[in-house]
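Researcher: Let's walk through a ligand-bound prediction step by step. First, I give you the protein sequence. Second, the SMILES string for 7PM. Third, you return the three-dimensional complex as structure tokens. Ready?
Model: Ready.
Researcher: Here are steps one and two:
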Amino acid sequence: MQLRCGTRILDLSRPVVMGIVNVTVDSFSDGGRHLDPQCALAHALRMAEAGAGLIDIGAESTRPGAGAVDAGEQIRRAVPVVRALASRSRVPISIDTSQAEVMTAAVEAGAVMINDVRALREPGALEAAACTSAAVCLMHMQGEPRTMQRTPRYTNVVAEVGAFLDERVRACLAAGISRDRLVLDPGIGFGKRLEHNLALLAALPELCRQGLPVLIGVSRKSMFGELLGRAVEQRLAGSLAGAVAGVLAGASIVRAHDVAESCDALRVIEALRQAGYAPERR
Ligand SMILES: Nc1nc2[nH]c(S[C@@H](C(=O)O)c3ccccc3)nc2c(=O)[nH]1
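Model: Step three, the predicted complex:
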């Protein structure tokens, strides 16, 4: 499987780890450590060195309860880091934003993927993405980060998330964004209770059979806090289990804080697959 990322093609025949750089003050798991552009750049370079095949740079924390950060502030925080990283490394860069102006500015500075937790639903976002050749990750979220975890409710979470992503793909194709640029993401933790996150991960083979690359982000999320009673810093084992399960189900990209450990875990999976490991798919 391949993904068009700007003028480049990202090979997804083996799973790719997307390293996370939050240039925010309140991201839940590394809040404030990377607000300084030099610190964010150093962290990005370390993750690329550790094996990250993508670096996701975000200036608006989308964790539950997070307030919105306006486009101007997102640009001030994220674009210098995108530009500096693009000049220092060949690692493909993703911009984690929902705002059209931020997408445009970040792509001009060197980003080759747009990671939008609102799936291009904000005003002008679809058009802004269509004006680039960047890849686009379409993620499902119920509600808004500030309130999404208050009362997540679904009749059938797998069907509803699937239908939402289908509709967003159609909207992208209609706007002239080609299928070879699209990535699907169920949005673990975005307006979901534990049982919803588990159901979505259990049904991931179904989502992966749509023929588009799938990205999953489980790293350090509250589902492991609830399942294991672990604080944010103690969720590596749970995060790796979630990443391995996602890749075995067919996910192509794993968004992670702990890049070296995630790369190690996925290298073991690749070696097993090369040796013929193929658990029956439901
Ligand atoms: N595509 C894609 N982008 C993402 N951005 C984030 S934010 C995340 C955090 O790590 O803070 C987070 C943590 C806790 C709750 C919600 C969000 N999660 C994803 C994801 O799962 N998929």
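Researcher: And what stands out?
Model: The chain has a mean pLDDT of 94. Strands lie at 2-5, 8-11, 16-22, 54-58, 93-96, 113-116, 135-139, 182-185, 215-217, 253-256.
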